[in-house]
Specification:
alpha/beta, Spore Coat Polysaccharide Biosynthesis Protein SpsA, Chain A, ten-stranded mixed beta sheet, two-stranded antiparallel ribbon, about 25% strand, Glycosyltransferase 2-like domain-containing protein, Nucleotide-diphossugar_trans, Glyco_trans_2-like
Length: about 270
């Protein structure tokens, strides 16, 4: 008897992405479960309008916390977790179906991702080494770890690997990225701070250029042209800002109230 599969899509304000994402799994899923965390752009209305979707809602705290709430609500034995900016190709869908139907010895599977920067496939840097456990038995897999993204831990540790890649259209504009960048760096710094980690002059000085060197030279981002160069600089800046925001939490001072007279002078200069 074929195994049953729930595709779990977690989202917020993804109206521009959710349609193509759901279409890519429509022929694969026995159930599509959309877990929304407060959309206001029509995402919820669209998901509810589709007869192949079941919608659940809750406040978002972290990605791991939100997904661990949603996973037990899947009605099928197997769960595939995807984001709205990801697409399941026919080749990957066929491999997933074969894996869950014919391999009783595995409780989870690693999936590689084909990452895209503004529509351009990334072949090098750390972005080309993306491997995640996204397919697992519902009762075996949960997210753990402090990262805002988190990682799925399969309790039995019996995991296989799939060869077809999950397409990930992660970034269509720098404006979108900077919004995510702000949240990711803040969450990481807050988690470090909660665990008692102190800011380090050496880490702030050396980690960003070392990250650039790793992505651009060691992981051959230079072979990806402008795409690889942008990713390498972005990763270096991301590394720096995590350290800077940790310093801010420990040592940043609050701005004192500005005197009304100073505000009036500034307004007169601007007029």
């Amino acid at each position: 008897m074929p195994a049953k599969l729930t595709v779990l899509l977690t989202c917020k304000d993804e109206r521009s992405n959710i349609g193509p994402c759901l279409d890519s799994v429509a022929g694969l899923a026995d159930e599509i479960l959309v877990a929304d965390s407060g959309s206001t752009d029509g995402t919820l209305e669209y998901a509810r309008s589709r007869p192949d979707c079941r919608v659940i809602e809750r406040e978002y705290i972290t990605a791991g916390d939100f997904k661990n709430w949603a996973i037990p609500q899947a009605s099928c034995e197997w769960v595939l977790i995807i984001d709205a900016d990801e697409r399941v190709s026919p080749a990957l869908a066929a491999e997933i179906r074969k894996a869950i139907d014919s391999n009783p010895d595995c409780d989870g599977y690693w999936l590689g991702r084909a990452n895209h920067l503004m529509g351009h496939r990334v072949h090098y840097t750390d972005w080309a080494r993306d491997q995640l456990v996204r397919l697992f038995r519902r009762d075996q897999g949960r997210y753990e770890g402090p990262s805002d993204h988190g990682n799925v831990k399969v309790r039995s540790e019996r995991c296989g690997s799939l060869t077809a890649l999950l397409d990930h259209y992660t970034l269509w504009s720098w404006a979108t990225y900077l919004h995510k960048f702000d949240r990711y760096t803040r969450v990481q710094a807050e988690q470090w701070y909660a665990r008692g980690r102190r800011p380090s002059y050496a880490r702030m000085l050396f980690s960003p250029p070392l990250r650039f060197f790793r992505d651009y030279i060691l992981h051959r981002g230079c072979l990806d042209g402008m795409v690889g160069l942008q990713i390498s600089w972005m990763s270096a800046f991301y590394t720096f800002m995590k350290q800077a925001r940790l310093w801010e939490l420990h040592h940043g001072l609050q701005q004192k109230d500005v005197e009304p007279e100073a505000i009036a002078k500034a307004e007169r200069r601007a007029a």
